[in-house]
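Exercise 7. Predict the joint structure of the components listed below.
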Amino acid sequence: MILSGVSVFALWPAAAREQFIAFIVAYGILAGGYNALLPTTIAEVYGVAHYTSVNASIYCIRGLGALFGAPLAGVILGSHQRGIPATPMASELSAKMLQRKYNLVAFYDAALLLAAGLAFAYVRWSDARYRGRWSWKA
Amino acid sequence: MLSPVMRILISKLGIGWALRILGLWNLAVGIPVSFVVKKRDGMFIAGEGQRGRTRLPMSVAKRGAYIWQVGRNFCEATAPLSDTSVQAIGAFLQAGGNVVPTYFLTTYSVAVLGYSPGTASLLLAISNAVNSVARVSMGVLADRAGRQNTMVISVSRLRTPSNLRTQRILCR
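Solution:
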């Protein structure tokens, strides 16, 4: 998750075409990890007895997160006019402004993912403390 | 995966038939699945123990205070900040962060980079395909390196310059 935040931060903002495709592939690979691994880590951290309840509530909170994440990014993006601008200078200016707005969206997204990564690192540390010992392979 | 197929279907057959074909496909996939899923015996036994199972028991919620109680003073408030509440916060943030690239991929590639909308949906399909492969491989990786480790770090090697060069060659 930390690496997915890093890839958003590093690969999205400047974004020529090849770099953007590299970002798509990198983000696709890195973001798959969380979705696939969440149920098993829940079972491991909280015990199989409580699996259903914790799973349900975590997915509920994830829904809330998705509900807040995308519209906020849309607010950052603002509205822009589609269509052919009048002069070449205007089109270049609007393209630059658009790029800058998308840069802001990229930074916002990277901040979200990095904060999530830190939260999960804390969960790992606290789980080790709960079990009483640290193991590298947890 | 589905979006180029849907695009071809819509352009050839019109949207009505494309939706009907999608519905039939869902039916065809769902029937073998419904044969495999079995109902567990004793699932609907009424009683307090069975019915209350999906509520979050307080012992788990207290493993951190599940929602960080902000009303206490600071020293007391940092003590309950343990893994359940932080897990909830982390899940919230990750879901928010996850939606943004998948949602803005198409609009970014059309508006800024100047791809056509068809190519933009193709990029989204590429992203989904890579995501599906990655879920399986992340599971395998997690078996080797530890599950929480993989989730926290999400190891990848794709940022090296040689790989960026490969991308450049592939895209020409």
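Discussion. The first helix of chain A runs from residue 2 to 11.
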